[in-house]
Amino acid sequence: MCPGDSRGWSKTKDEQIAIFYNQSDFGYVRNFRNSMKTICLPFPNDTESSLLECSENLNFCRGRNLMIDFSDLKTRKSPVMYDTDVLKEGQIGGYCKFDKTLLENNSDYLGSLQSWAPEIRNFVPLTQPIRFSQCDQIISQPTIIMKIDATVNMYHHFCDFFNLYASLHVNATTDNVDTFGKNNNILIWRTYPYRSNFEATFRAFTKNPIIDLNNYAGKRVCFENFVFPLLPRMIFGLFYNTPLIWGCKNSGLFHAFSKFILHRLRIDTKRLPDTKKIKITFLSRQTSYRNVLNENILLDELRKNPELVVKKVQFSHKTDFLNQLEVIQDTDILIGMHGAGLTHLLFLPDWAVVFELYAGIQL
Question: Which pTM was predicted?
Fold first, then answer.
């Protein structure tokens, strides 16, 4: 796990391993689970009362019987994408014993993709259960409410998918036996219709169509079971700008994520490498700053070796994403220019290696 030197991050090898585990492995999940506190406490012996519990800084929240008033979306002039003013005070609430101080003490991070504070800071206690709260629509199906990053870029969008997967583990409880079930709704917190070349990845998480805020515009909606998952750009989050300790590798959490996606999307995985030929996939980029000027010379040299099978691929919005995963799973060595395209390395076979090229270096 940590064969290299920590470069001063730790005093001992055990400490280095512990830091890595907490930063980028299942210790990351455990830290959120351990920081959970109840902001909206159900009343004793009242199954109709509400529950809202969140991790520190409102990075992750879950609960039951939550009211959200989307009435203003009907007349809102600007579309919602990364906006932090979707809700006003009183437009989200529940019937419970409300700890306002706890909420205020965890509402410092107000960046759109940093926490759920921009939305949950507007929480108010209701005077009666949600079924008496004039809900225009009651959603009984479990709902995952997501704020997502750029959907056109694989690196950024997989920040969303990875943290959604980690959230399933954070949400796991002995009472919730269907944590990884697919009979749920995924609601994207924006009014732009969701479109992405990577949309198929959502099939790993739900069997239902992806919905957005337009589905509920102008309505007062009550959710019987909900999750606000981890976000893609949390301060000291995982995947985006993560400050990982030096000298460590092979996160079990990332490995589990990779296997989860491949299994759920039914991608044939390779158990053992081909001992006769080494399969090289060269990821060719046609953007101004990501293309290799002498890539044909490089490929010609590689093809002179009879022990290599060299394939050049160009993945674009026109390339079916499941096909991309199949190509990557059939790769022993992945070569590509530094950039979002190398996010594909998440789905390489366990024995595969990566050669990352950088602009300005002639090969």
Answer: 0.94
